[in-house]
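REQUEST FORM: STRUCTURE PREDICTION
Request ID: SP-0412
Submitted by: Lab K.M.
Chain count: 1
Length (residues): 294
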Amino acid sequence: MDSIDKCYDAIMELQGVDDLKGMVSRLRKFHLNKKKLPTAKVTQPNYLWAAKRGGGISTCINAFTEYLYADKVIEFTGTAKYFEFKLAYISPDKFFSELSRLDSAMSEIAGHHRFFRGVACINIDEWTGHASDEHFYKFIDYMASRNDKILMVFCIHAEDKNVIESVESALSSRLRIETVPLRFPKSNELVELVDSKHFKSQGFYLSDDAKSLLADSIDGMIDGKHFNGFVTVEQLATDILFRLLEAGFTPSANGCEIYADMLSGFSRESKFIKRIKTFAAPKTMGFATAKEER
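STATUS: Completed
RESULT:
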């Protein structure tokens, strides 16, 4: 299996993001067909990703960029293949300093190259209620002027159709945009994820009733105001492991099966679950680069 197939399969193995998988599948077909028409000047669109907070955008953008790089879909130059940036809101009566900050970020990641070429993942959460502001259009114009060098992925944490459409409309006035909703995994899918990553890997095996209890507990957290997606679920799994070891449960040669009564402290009505609803503060996206350098 070559690197393109590995990167493609890595995206197909992601949980919950069916729309992203469909988009990448169509993109792969487009690129294969484009190779048959070497003179065709047809490029892919930029993207608006709409996800639940904590829905794994950073994981998705890393997997997506690795695929683009492996398949040579776009050109890459710089110290990293992509960067993440949070565009802060500036009121119309103040100087729009965010463009200078964004320009500095791009210059930094360009390294010794004149321009950065790659993927820009830009969080525009703070602009969801200000998509018609003059400053926001200045930002879009700025990005459009770099459309030949950068593939843009604009990200918002929103599920409201009207909010998504207002941002989509503003972006589409200057850029080709495809909107991709990133569905957050269902509670039973999340249980399977943490079971595989945290429990089975350590020799613990969740019984069916234990899985049902955890799925119900996650359902109880998901709609909490400060639920932080995978971060919160990872926190839950880590604390369960801590409590199991604290109570003296350790895997034997055949492993250790975990039953629902052993997880009573993590039921939907437990103090832990009620507390964790407001414990995890929302994670914001700041400027960061992919660790792997070219």
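NOTES: Residues 18-34 form the longest helix (17 residues).
Reviewed by: T.R.
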